[in-house]
Design brief:
Layout lengths: L11 E4 L3 H13 L6 E4 L2 H12 L8 E5 L7 H10 L8 E5 L3 H11 L3 E4 L4 H13 L12 E3 L2
Helix pairs in contact: 1-5, 2-3
Length: 153
């Protein structure tokens, strides 16, 4: 894993199709007291559009990207491969958020040089702790909290 990344401020791009999971992530990101905002896309096609906009400089580069592997239209591994192909996103921290067991997610983390993975929660308190620990290494907090997820698709 690429633990040498420096923490940066800025938006967090969340690629997640499940509204309840998105709300959970937003609460955890709020607790990190981020200066940036949470940008959410709800499927792989919208994520690919957002990635193209980032690569072409039309929107701000995210501080980190959180990817659900179980999107309805595009396999998560395919989406991660596309993220890593973009020169502007090659060193952006990417974290998997999925309902698969960690043992099955770890090979994907290693294959793409991701910063980690987090299982979808059965217990909110456990999720909050592990997700916050994972993300806080790469995202600087700021003085403002993100009020809610901003949907871009």
């Amino acid at each position: 894993m690429a633990d040498e990344q420096q923490a940066t401020s800025g938006p967090v791009l969340v690629i997640e199709d499940n509204w309840h999971d998105l709300v959970l992530m937003t609460h955890v990101l709020d607790d990190l007291d981020l200066k940036g905002r949470v940008l959410a896309v709800h499927n792989g096609a919208a994520a690919l559009e957002r990635i193209a906009d980032i690569e072409n400089g039309r929107v701000e580069k995210p501080a980190a990207i959180i990817v659900d592997l179980s999107l309805p239209d595009i396999p998560g591994e395919q989406l991660i491969a596309e993220i890593r192909r973009q020169s502007s996103l090659q060193h952006t921290p990417v974290v998997i958020f999925s309902d698969g067991p960690l043992e099955q997610l770890q090979p994907i983390v290693e294959q793409f040089g991701l910063q980690g993975c987090c299982e979808k929660p059965a217990n909110f308190a456990e999720f909050q702790k592990s997700f916050a620990e994972l993300l806080s290494r790469w995202i600087k907090g700021g003085g403002e909290k993100s009020k809610s997820a901003e949907s871009v698709a």
